TrEMBL record:
Residues 87-98 form the 7,8-dihydro-6-hydroxymethylpterin-pyrophosphokinase domain. One of its GO terms (molecular function) is ATP binding. It comes from the Bacteria. This is 2-amino-4-hydroxy-6-hydroxymethyldihydropteridine pyrophosphokinase. SUPFAM superfamilies: 6-hydroxymethyl-7,8-dihydropterin pyrophosphokinase, HPPK (SSF55083). The keyword Hydrolase does not apply. It comes from uncultured Thiotrichaceae bacterium. InterPro entries: Hppk, Hppk_sf. The lineage of its organism: Bacteria, Pseudomonadati, Pseudomonadota, Gammaproteobacteria, Thiotrichales.
Length: 163
């Protein structure tokens, strides 16, 4: 199944952390990394009293169920010594399931599609870069969201070798 993963970091060496997280995804026996976006630097959404973020989006192919995928992502977060002191506070690594092919889910642990993704430029623009034709199950296209979403908040970094 195709799934898109949002990746964020704003503590430590974020570029190295995201690069390593992409490698961890690809190294998982039930995950194939299909593609990933450039890395984008952005101001924090929500609480402003934290460092700028580095964000990227990965497209994966996986045989894991959404819940098993969530657990695999949490294991990768933990490998990166994720410290999370407060809700919406700074973190070394954040991996979010954005969408999972053919699934809508609304549980305490997991909501798919990700409830805030459509209003977040740091998700919309990187995802559009790798899947410009993507359309949500309700018919809204990523292309339309991109026209509504300010891109000037994002600073696209030079490509780096990941794999
Ligand atoms: N802001 C940005 N720019 N990038 C993120 O990944 C991010 N993640 C979050 C909050 C705190 C909402 N803000 C963010 O969880």
């Amino acid at each position: 199944m195709i799934s898109y993963i949002g990746i964020g970091s704003n503590l430590g060496d974020s570029k190295q952390t995201i690069r390593s997280a992409l490698q961890n995804l690809n190294a998982h026996s039930s995950i194939v990394l299909e593609s990933h976006s450039h890395f984008y630097q952005s101001k924090p959404h929500g609480p402003q009293d934290q460092p700028d973020y580095l964000n990227a989006v990965a497209k994966i192919n996986t045989s894991l169920s959404p819940l098993h995928l969530l657990h695999a992502l949490q294991a990768i977060e933990n490998e990166h010594d994720r410290v999370r002191t407060k809700h919406w506070g700074p973190r070394t690594l954040d991996l979010d399931i954005l969408v999972y092919e053919g699934q809508t889910l609304n549980t305490d642990h997991l909501t798919i599609p990700h409830p805030y993704m459509r209003e977040r430029p740091f998700v919309i623009h990187p995802m559009y870069e790798i899947s410009p034709d993507f359309v949500f199950d309700d018919g809204q296209s990523l292309a339309e969201l991109v026209t509504l979403s300010p891109k000037d908040e994002l600073n696209k970094l030079e490509p780096i070798d990941v794999l």
